[in-house]
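Hi team,

Below is the intake form for Zinc knuckle from Carex littledalei. Please confirm the fields before the structure is written into the shared record.

FORM ID: S-0412
PROTEIN: Zinc knuckle
ORGANISM: Carex littledalei
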Amino acid sequence: MRKVYESSQLRADFINHVSLWTQFHNVPHEMLSAEGVLYLARKIGAPVSEVEQGYYAGRLYMKAKVSFNASEPLEDKLMLNHPSLGKILIYLVYERAGRLCPHCGRVGHDLSGCARRNQILTLCADLGN
Ligand SMILES: [Zn+2]
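The structure came back. Fields below:
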C-alpha cells in the first residue's frame, strides 16, 4: 500500500521554502571567499548555489542563492563574532524577493495580505469597542 501522506508532506515542505539570491555586505576581507560566504549563508538558511561576486559602490560583495523557511521572517543583518575585530554586522540584501511583507518580514504576501497584521488590527478594533 502506498503512503499518500509522504508525498503531501513533501509538497507542503516545498511550498514552505523559498530560494533567494542573497547578497552579503560588510564581510571581513578574509571571509570574502566561497567557503567564508557559505559559512555565513548556513547561518540564515541552506545554500543552494555556488558563490558569486558583485560590486556595489566600488566595493566587492559576495552572494549565494539560499533556501529559506518561508514561514520565518527574513533577517536584514547577521551578527558575526570575529576573533580579532569583535562583533561585525553583515548586511543582507535579497535580490528579486518579490512580495516581501514590510510588517512581518515574510515572503509571499504584502501588507494588506498579512495575517499577523490583520490579527493585530482586529485586536485593536476589539479593544476600542
Ligand atoms: Zn506579513
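SUMMARY LINE: The pocket of zinc ion is lined by residues 101, 103-104, 106, 109, 114, 116-117 (CB under 6 Å).

Thanks, M.
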